[in-house]
Amino acid sequence: MSNQRKRPNGEREEDDEEDDAEGIGQWERAYVDDRSWEALQEDESGLLRPIDTSAIYHAQYRRRLRMLSAAAAGTRIQKGLIRYLYIVIDFSRAAAETDFRPSRMAIMAKHVEAFIREFFDQNPLSQIGLVSIKNGIAHTLTDLGGSPESHIQALMGKLEAAGDSSLQNALELVHEHLNQIPSYGHREVLILYSALSTSDPGDIMETIQKCKKSRLRCSVIGLSAEMFICKHLCQETGGLYSVAVDEVHLKDLLLEHAPPPPAIAEFAISNLIKMGFPQRAAEGSMAICSCHKEVKIGAGYTCPRCKARVCELPTECTICGLTLVSSPHLARSYHHLFPIAPFDEVPTLASSNDPRRKVGKSCFGCQQSLLGAGNKPGPCVTCRKCKHYFCLDCDIYIHESLHNCPGCESTHRPKSVSLMEE
Amino acid sequence: MATVASKLYSDDGSLLVLLLDTNPLFWSNTSTTFSQFLSHVLAFLNAVLGLNQLNQVVVIATGYCSCDYIYDSSLTLSGNSESGRTGMPALFASFLEKLEDFIVKDEELIKEQEHDERIASSLLSGSLSMALCYIQRVFRSGHLHPQPRILCLQGSPDGPEQYVAVMNSIFSAQRLMVPIDSCYIGTQNSAFLQQASYITGGVHHAPKQLDGLFQFLTTIFATDLHTRSFVQLPKPVGVDFRASCFCHKKTIDMGYVCSVCLSIFCEHHKKCSTCGSVFGQSKLDGASTVSEKKRKAPDS
User: Fold this and answer.
1) What are the DSSP calls for A350-380, one per residue?
2) Signal peptide span per the entry (chain B) (predicted)?
3) DSSP 8-class letter at A282
4) How many CB atoms lie within 10 A of CB A384?
5) B164: distance to nearest CA of chain A, Å?
6) In tens digits, what is the pLDDT along chain A, a chain of 422 residues?
7) Would the CA dihedral through B74, B75, B76, B79 be positive or negative?
8) Domains, chain B, ranges and CATH?
9) What is the Cα B242 distance to its own chain's centre?
10) Do A411 and B132 touch (CB under 8 A)?
11) For chain A, how big is the Rg over CA atoms in Å?
């Protein structure tokens, strides 16, 4: 249904002939599809009951969770967490079109900004570079780097569209850059393509084979219509190809690329990398940093191996060559590795016979009463391991944000049953 | 009544979730007794409640084998009738009763599972998770709610096996913009608490002496978050960013990181125990040669 919303008027009316769509405004359409009036309920005295959407919302969430855990069970949790991603943005003539408002270009920039932030949040130690295509030539906007601000600044400064687009030039440039990165990194290219053609100086098929050989995973998000060459590129290199139908869809498609993709063994050679976790020095302490060779007052980090001072993390120690990272940076991704199992729903009927149920009158996490209206037991879920009861809101919070089960965390586990076994 | 009032003026009221370390293994060998410590804390809680009538205090006990809610000032307001069986002010009679029950239960649990473990750590990850669930519930309750913050009063050393869980809680708190203040009263440094306060923008302090604990608590941790910007706070004395390795649960400052899943190990393995990828030897050698080259370069 969302596909139809954004199309030009003439087309839309033809599509919806079977609907009584003639007099319906765009804003009404969302409600027609929802049929929200059918969900209204009356209570005993005939008064309208407020619609309880929480149950529906929770059901949706559980479906999503089950899907995720099913996917995780199939593939062992092996994710490429060190990613080197080039974002190629097509700023050719077609990017100035206004079917996305205010223009494709502005919408692309806006969502790429959000994507960059999300990407660094989910992929510590990964790096992004930006490439633009304009007048048939690919330009490097930023080199691979780990700071979101510098990328966003470079992107926002260059918002103009002109000339043709060239897929081959962009791929050649990116290939050149990505060929130099270490073998344990995942090389990825994400192309936002708004043109419907590509004008190339040579044979693009050769370039695609070259990318395949260097194990570049190329994904394309189209803004106009599906193109064979893009599809072929994605199929060959193992990427995803999708075409956005409207702004919301574009945003979703982009953000799909933010979580780390399942690692494919042949794509990157796994390795143990020796790293140091430096301590942050006290505010106001004075030292000479090894990176700028200047006296600096204030916080810096001390290399644990050679005790040299560096200004920023992550970096490589200039004295002993040790890779220095901040450990919270790594820890940000650990919930991918140790996901908590989905909680079981407690059937409301059987629960009254359950002796344990009397103990768990309130949610273990937030102490909210689990009794619904009229002191009947309300809907709740339980953790398989610790058998504590949780309310639906906590269930969502625990799985989507906290990634800890408060019940399991507040029981003392013997050392043998720790992470090693999982 | 109380709820209506707090909905209207809640912008400068604050919700303090206090995580109280009750670990008997820690309190049995300190110079200060638990009851002395508790009298400081009770006075502090009274002070917080007295600062603003909209302030709310929730106390969660962090034990060795379990965690539980001990006190919620929003609940006791309604049931004010049963006053001091123990001769204490009515406000804290239930607090002490529940705390006593909790400690007795916790000690029973310790006896049940006798493990000769070296580190007598408390379950900080559990109480942090519970506190965040509670705060999440407060956020759900509407637009106007007291501004929440967490204060960890911790004495026992960090449990490296809780590393992942504690870090998860810290990041969740950061996303909710809830500062985690911490007051560490033990002998070692707590890397967990230092990182928690640093990442979430809270205050970390480790008082040298416990005699004046009340004064430390009131001058540093009592004010609401807005007032805090006018208060002279202790300067942070560096942050311990050490991590725990996944294989032996040791706290390390240098280690090996799996390039696929970023698991941390304290020694070289052939295979990653977390994600199952098999490691080549190449990079390791490569790294050492690179560093040697670099070291040699300036000499020559």
Assistant:
1) GGGT-HHHHH--B-TTT--B-B-GGG-B--E
2) none
3) P
4) 12
5) 7
6) 444 444 444 444 444 444 444 556 666 665 666 666 666 666 667 676 665 666 667 777 777 676 666 555 544 555 666 788 999 999 998 888 888 888 889 899 999 998 998 888 777 778 899 999 999 899 999 888 777 788 888 888 878 888 899 999 999 999 999 888 877 778 899 999 999 988 899 999 999 999 988 888 899 999 989 999 999 999 999 888 999 988 888 988 998 888 777 655 455 567 788 888 888 887 777 788 887 777 877 778 888 888 888 887 777 788 888 888 888 888 887 877 787 888 888 776 544 454 444 445 788 888 888 776 666 677 788 888 888 888 888 888 888 888 889 888 888 765 433 343 33
7) positive
8) 2-228 (3.40.50.410), 243-299 (no CATH)
9) 17
10) no
11) 27
Q: For residue B196, which amino acid is it?
A: A
ipTM of the complex, rounded to two decimals: 0.81
The verdict on B130 touching A (C-beta cutoff 8 Å) is yes
Distance CA A232, CA A171 (A): 14
Cβ neighbours around A73 below 10 Å, total: 9
Could you tell me which residues are beta bridge partners of residue B152? B19, B182
Query: What distance in Å separates the CA atoms of residue A244 and residue A112, rounded to the nearest whole number?
Result: 14
DSSP per-residue codes, A41-64: EE-TTSPEEPP--HHHHHHHHHHH
Which chain B residues are Cβ-neighbours of A271 within 8 angstroms? Answer: 258-259, 279-280, 282-284
Domain ranges of chain A: 83-267, 275-334, 339-410
> Which residues of chain A from 326 to 355 reach within 8 Å of chain B, CB to CB?
326-328, 330-338
Q: Does A386 touch chain B (CB under 8 A)?
A: no
* Calpha distance A90→B183 (Å, rounded): 53
Q: Are A257 and A190 in contact (CB under 8 A)?
A: yes
3-state secondary structure of B254: strand
Beta-bridged to residue B60, according to DSSP, are B19, B69
pTM over 0.90: no
Question: CA-CA distance, A355 to A369, in Å (whole number)?
Answer: 17
Query: How far apart (Å, rounded) are the C-alpha atoms in residues B174 and B246?
Result: 24
Distance separating alpha carbons of residues A205 and A217, to the nearest angstrom: 15
The pair of structure tokens assigned to B276 is: 């199952």
Residue B265 touches chain A, beta carbons under 8 Å: yes
Residue B243 has φ and ψ, to the nearest 5°, of -110, 170
Phi-psi region of A126 (alpha: psi -120 to 50; beta: other; left: phi over 0): beta
Contact A191/A86 with Cβ under 8 angstroms? Answer: no
Alpha helices in chain B (DSSP H): 2-9, 24-27, 34-51, 73-76, 90-112, 124-140, 163-176, 191-200, 213-216, 225-228, 282-299
Looking at the structure, give the CATH architecture of the domain made up of residues A339-410. Answer: 2-Layer Sandwich (3.30)
Structural contact between residues A176 and A140, judged by C-beta atoms closer than 8 angstroms = no
CATH number of this structure's domain A83-267, picked from the four choices 3.30.750.24, 3.40.50.410, 3.40.50.1010, 1.10.390.10: 3.40.50.410
CA dist., res. A179 & res. A233, Å (int): 18
Buried b (16+ CB within 10 A) or exposed e, A281-304: beeeeeeebbbeeeebeeebbbbb
Both tokens assigned to A314: 């992550």
Find chain B residues with C-beta within 8 A of A275's C-beta: 254-257
Q: What is the CB neighbour count within 10 angstroms for residue B222?
A: 20
Q: Return the structure tokens found at A17.
A: 């002939």
